[in-house]
Amino acid sequence: MLSSISGSHGTRRLKKRFTAVILALVLASMVVSLPGAALAHNSSHEDPAFLGYLSGGYGKKQFRFVVATDSHFGSWQGNKNSLLALANIAQRHPDAAFMIHMGDITETGADEEYELLKQDIAGLPFPVMATMGNHESRWQDPQGSKFRNHFGPSTYSFDYGMWHFVVLDTSYPEQTYGTLDPSVLAWLEQDLASQPASKPVALFSHHPLLYQERNFQDSDDALLEIIGKYPVHAIFSGHGHSFITWKVQGCSCFMSGALMDNAYIAVEADGLALRVYSVTPSSPNEEEAGVPGPDAPVYRESLLGAVSAPAQRGMDELVSRLSVRVEDETLKASFYLSEPASLWFQIDGGYYNELGMKKRGTHEFSVDISAHAPGTHTLRIKAVTGDGQYVTTKEFEKDTDELILWKQDLGSSLVARMLKASPSNVIVGTRNGMVYSIDAGKGDILWEYDAGAPWSGGAIDGQKLYFGTAAGEVHCLDKNTGRMTWKTTLDPAGFVEPPVICDTGKGRCLIIGSPSGKVYALSTVSGVNRWDYQASGAVTNTPSTGLGMVFFGDWAQKLYSLDVTTGQEIWVKHLGRQMYYSPAGNSLFYGNTLFAVTPADTHSGGSFLYALNPHSGEENWKGVNWRSFLEPSLPLYSQNTSVRRPFILVPDSGGRITAYYRAYGEIPWHLQGYSTLFAGLPNLDGIYVTGGARGVLAIHAGDSQLDFKVRDTFLFVDPLVLKSQGNQAKTANEYFLVQGDNRGTLWGIKIPVSP
């Protein structure tokens, strides 16, 4: 499991590649032999995967397939309308070759919601493929473990007729925004490179790709580099619940209406051509819909667009030779335009600014960037022609020489929480299943460990590191070497958040919760299961402990107290009324008080912070906020960690930090930061960090605020704020932070302000 940095990278990767090839052959034979009405790949959990030719697809020139999305089973509207739409699909398109569901299958990612789709497609006479959406990953299935148990891989490719089809999972755990992991993009390029150069490709994803009007995900720049090399001619997406078409890089893009709105897409393939139709309801007509009842609608098909796949796709390099430099707060750009076009430019996802109609040739322009924060930015140039938009991008740095300490490319984006293992080391996990120990001062990889699935964040106890994974395993490693001490398999629903380590009447114990609703207590020495408890709903938080009790919330709107030694229930309290994560976020036990939050709810009058008696669950006091509170936490200090903290810190989704006195709930101060994507509040010695949207961090210290642009991606994982140690410290107060971006880069960034 452990690979040394200097030795066995090549061997390990070769073994993985060999395993992937064998898996692809097995999957291909499995798919070809499938009967009609089935999920096309529900017996393998490997991800990504190549499924080969679907049954009956080899050599077929003319066929029809269905593209569906956003059924939202589990909601009232989704349960009603998605059933009607699926019945219409069965009645109108019985000869379809297959159907692809592009995510948001469910309202919250619960097992029973997945089962509703499986029941409703059981009678379809063709295979159904699926991928995840944000309504799965944001809520009760963050790591996609439940999805894979029901449907198999969420990223995969297959062949049918003369086309190659690729389904991409753009979801990210516990986030609404999407991304394509660098490891998935690397697989995509390998997959496309393995196909004949003349075979056209269609991509499918939940979050819209290459949609210039709004950033639903942050991977377009990396995707542009790939599709410019290969014959990608069509892209289908969901998420927007609307029928919208656009064209980028010569590729025809289609957003689909939602099944929960009685809408879907039907596609006719004829050789290298596709004709794409929207299917929507008009007026009630029981016979046309084929479903009994007075509310059954009539469906009509309307042509959305046509796709042709020429032997060569022109103008991918309409704008080329783009170079940029920064001089005296001015960005200067030069590029070559191969055909006349209307030109526009954008920096970091802002508004496009018009450059005007330009002729063929070399062009230059400059723009004042004095208002832009220090950091790594992205310039995008868009050329608009009669054949759609063509986009070229280039990163540039501004004032980073003294701020960027180091960068480390991990090949996959971070997932779950980073962990401070010592004053000089941090431990991180990536979405491709790797766990790394990093020298925080230099960025060097000290050891790496292949966990086989994404970790859920870890906990340190003495010299040991403990963590769960999306595959439902719990691992114990030596934190200094990365060598495995023990591993146990517990729960097919996987784990989402770090465990907690505590003392019990039977020795040290690890406690971890699962989206299955199970909470497990394991011996830290052996991994033996001491007890487990079944909650009413999914447990997607790290339990807190104190006074011989363990506390956690679930998705059934309940907060629990158990005996930490036996797992026996002490009390259960109902908190909140929303179906979304109430009170499933992390709780905090401090000063003989239990703190928990519920999300904003218009019926209840806001988002609430509860201070509870840990023995009974009775309310001591509560605070209210109009935006959703995030998890409560404590001020962190680099020294004197035993100091009593008179207040706790509670951030909200809008970036405001509120300090509450523990005993009575008075508010000594607020701090307004940037709207945040983080789960909690990164802080150390009075330095606080907010932000994350489009890669911008706001670093607060005293009355000062420094903005820093890490990169033009979303920052989903909370940064760690650290203090330089030993020879690294040039001054008495030198701080820096460690931050990961969605392109797989880990950054060490100096904080040039002192608390």
Task: Sum up the structure in keywords.
about 750 residues; mainly beta; Purple Acid Phosphatase, chain A, domain 2; Immunoglobulin-like; Methylamine Dehydrogenase, Chain H; seven-stranded mixed sheet; six-stranded mixed sheet; 8 helices; 52 strands; about 40% strand; disordered N terminus
CATH architecture of the domain at 9-308: 4-Layer Sandwich
The share of residues in helices is 10-25%
Mean pLDDT, all residues? 89
Catalogue the unreliable spans. 1-45, 285-292
What is the CATH superfamily classification of the domain at 9-308?
Metallo-dependent phosphatases
Which CATH first-tier class of the domain at 9-308 would you pick?
A: Alpha Beta
- The secondary structure category is mainly beta
What is the general shape? globular
Characterise the protein shown here:
By secondary structure, the chain is mainly beta. Among the domains are: 9-308, Purple Acid Phosphatase, chain A, domain 2, CATH 3.60.21; 319-398, Sandwich (Immunoglobulin-like), CATH 2.60.40; 490-629, 7 Propeller (Methylamine Dehydrogenase, Chain H). Helix content is 11%, strand content 42%. It has 8 helices and 52 strands. The strands form 12 sheets. It has a 7-stranded mixed β-sheet. The protein has a 6-stranded mixed β-sheet with strand order 5-4-3-12-13-14. Strands 1-26-25-24-23 form a 5-stranded antiparallel β-sheet, with no helix packed on it. The longest helix has 24 residues, at 9-32. The two termini are 42 Å apart. Residues 1-45 and 285-292 have low confidence and may be disordered.
